[in-house]
Amino acid sequence: MATISMTTYSNPVIPGFYPDPSICRVEDDYYLVTSSFAYYPGVPIFHSKDLVNWRQIGHCLTSEQQLPLSNTWISGGIYAPTIRYHDGWFYMVTTNVSGGGNFYVRSQQPEGPWSERIAVAQDGIDPSLLFDEDGSVYFQSTCSGDEGYGIYQCEIDISTGKLLTTSRLIWKGTGGAHPEAPHLYKINGLYYLLLAEGGTEYCHMVTIARSSAPYGPYEACPHNPILSHRSLKSSIQATGHADLVQAHDGSWWAVFLGIRPVSYPYRHHLGRETFLAPVSWTADGWPIIGNRGSVESVMEAPQLTEVRWQTNSTRDDFDDSTLGFDWVFLRNPDPLCWSLTDAPGNLVLRGNVTSLDESGAPAFVGRRLRHWTCNISALLNFEPQHNGEEAGLTLFMNESYHYDLAVMLKEGRKVIVFRRTVGSLRTEHTLECSEGPVILKIEAQPEWFHFKIQQDQSNVLELGSGESHLLSTEVAGGFTGVIVAMYAVCETGQGTPACFDWFEYEPLNA
Ligand code: 6LW
Predict the structure, then answer these.
(1) What ranges make up the beta strands (E) of 38-136?
(2) Which of 44, 122, 345, 397 is most buried (most C-beta within 10 Å)?
(3) Does the pLDDT value for residue 311 go beyond 90?
(4) Is pLDDT at 4 greater than 80 in this prediction?
(5) Which atom from ligand 1 is nearest to the alpha carbon of 126?
(6) What is the pTM of this model?
């Protein structure tokens, strides 16, 4: 670990589809979790010593018992998580909107293993926890209850998740749409309730209120919103869904989600990403995020000793017995569809009947697209035997919006297919392909993706390109971001082994 003093840092601190961040501190260690929706394992957890340099140390949800996802839609599954530390235990509370509702898992080590699900019978999403000095544990979530839509709270027995009190409305926010993402803090004897309002798009904002008692009455901050880019023409938009943390040097910081639209009209395809900003306190005791509620791409760094982590190699040769933390499956994976041992040094995928157009669990191993400009490539050994079966790479936003570059058996011939699926529209280009390995290449630029192949050291051939904005959230909808994945499909259900020898992801002018 290198340690140097920092002067500035760049936002987002965790690029790519890592939304709804929540953070906690244990002495001089920081831990952060984000939403994961229909991807598995769920709830990635990151570690930092300086709030700027983050490394993923695992996932909180790594079993089907913790995370049942079958047939959930792509933006279903796991919504916003909260991570808190108390009395030697880490708690991660979240919602599976596709089964089970609010629950938490706990662990004495942040890297896990985490416990089985502990359900909490309060409705809604965006759950959070406050451990009070008197031993009370307050559970908040945003829901529509018998007192209308807003932030509800109850007390729970943290050893069982059981409710000890009824759920009561504590604040409806300042009047913005969708009051959500509550976090309750006890600071200098007062209870501060942080919210997101306006919806997670371009009207997003962070608001706050405080009270001398946990159930209120809450007085809204006169400086609200304490963070919003809704009226700014900034390269960073939709800032909201924040969590506060006091650093070990006493300074205060906020992590929150934001988006980086590529061009105008605004369209973003990397999803909602995790940003960092300093928090200042007004003379009348209110926190303000960033520069009077706005943030920049480059900001003054925390006065903490910088600790950089060894950066991941740009190439994965699949020589390990397990997949790296970057890799995710789409819903709970079929164990027969992937292997790191059938052909050592390869990731082997076997297509099942689920195609990329269906909400199931295809043979699919992917990672988040985290840069506007990067070169992606993979070496594939695949001699398809069943007509129609294919294996290759996909830039996947959801089942109706994805670009695929694959080796396929079409009418008995081995071809390369470049396919664009954009809503109800589909285009397909094919090119004859000889036997033997092929390198599949995707060159990502801010506004375009270029799809190329190379065989036998021959020249690189471009099959086609696709606009990034057609895979953007504004076009495709949902809460996720583009995933680049290796995949395989076979209508017979027993696909020919597709051996990915290596996968390379090289950011350019990051
Ligand atoms: C998250 C909630 C939200 O739980 O979207 O729009 C949900 N706001 O805060 C998924 O990110």
Answers:
(1) 39-40, 42-48, 55-61, 82-86, 89-96, 101-107, 118-119, 125-131
(2) 397
(3) no
(4) no
(5) 4
(6) 0.97
pLDDT digit string, tens, across residues 82-133: 999 999 999 999 999 998 999 999 999 999 999 999 999 999 999 999 999 9
Q: What string of DSSP letters covers 435-499?
A: SS-EEEEEEE-SSEEEEEEE-TT---EEEEEEEGGGGSHHHH-SS---EEEEEEE-TTSSPPPEE
Q: Is the shortest distance between the CB of 20 and ligand 1 below 6 Å?
A: yes
Closest residue to atom 6 of ligand 1, CA basis = 200
Catalytic one of 50, 155, 180, 306: 180
Q: Calculate how far, in angstroms, residue 68's C-alpha sits from the geometric centre of ligand 1.
A: 20
CATH topology of domain 19-308: Tachylectin-2; Chain A (2.115.10)
Number of helices followed by number of strands (H, E) in the chain: 1, 41
Peptide bond into 225 cis (omega under 30): yes
Task: Say whether 180 is catalytic.
Answer: yes
pLDDT in tens, 441-464: 999 999 999 999 999 888 999 999
Residue 3 above 70 pLDDT?
A: no
Ligand 1 center to 465 CA (angstroms): 32
Do domains 19-308 and 315-507 share one topology? The answer is: no
Give the mean pLDDT of the chain.
Answer: 96
For ligand 1, the distance from its centroid to the CA atom of residue 200, given in whole angstroms, is: 6
Task: For 132-160, write each residue's pLDDT tens digit.
Answer: 999 999 999 999 988 999 999 999 999 99
- Nearest ligand 1 atom to alpha carbon 75: 10
Q: Which CATH architecture has domain 315-507?
A: Sandwich (2.60)
Is the beta carbon of 79 within 6 A of some atom in ligand 1?
A: yes
Parse the chain into domains and list their residue ranges: 19-308, 315-507
